[in-house]
What does this fold into?
Amino acid sequence: MHRGGFRASERLGKSRVRPTVSSKRKLHRRRWRCETRGQGQRMARRIHTPRGGGSVVLGWWRGFRDGERGASLVEFAMVTVLLFTLLFGIIEFGFVFRDRLTIANAAQSAARVGASMGSAPEADMAILDSLATSLDTLPNSGLGIVRYVDIFEARADGTPASACPGAKCSRYAYFPTATCDWSPCPDDPAVVTWTGRDDALPDLDVLGLQLGYAHSWLTDFLPLDDVTCLSPSGDCWTERALMRIEPQVFAP
It folds into this structure.
């Protein structure tokens, strides 16, 4: 008699239930699945569980988190280098533009003063006084930045008509002292080499003014060399202003 897939038989006065073939197969499959699942879990624990203990999920998450942390550090280092390069570049070149604009404006103002003075003997002194006043806005009044000033007769292309110093070019070094800010001091007309400026119509001279200056970078972060400008023929940055002399003598 079959009941629920089992066969009942009488042996030795006792009732005994024997499993059928299909039931044996099911039991065998269940036992194999349990054994296989247990082996897999034990293997996963060996691979993913750290020495200090912990579950499989926590071990896997810690490994993933450590990998993400290492990648984040590399990305942060790369971005930091670019960020600091941009930041220091803005700061450094901001000071460069400040010096350049200040010196260029000072040269323009001084050239305008010289053009209005014409051929007066005190013209160079008035030009340099205007420069010194404008350079007060620079650190230490421009001392260590502005090196020299050339006052010259300019050609059509803006270059000096003679070598500096020379017959048509006067050169002054910026060296402030208690008596004068320039060397040689142009308060003595004898030191002025460019004399006889033409301020009569129709042939008016063009007055040129050139400043040579140095620049020191604030930091060593950028691979740039300082501009020393130890001599006019050396490594100098220059600013030039040209202005036609205003007529002082008019034709009848």
Remarks:
- Residues 99-244 form one domain.
- The mean pLDDT is 80.
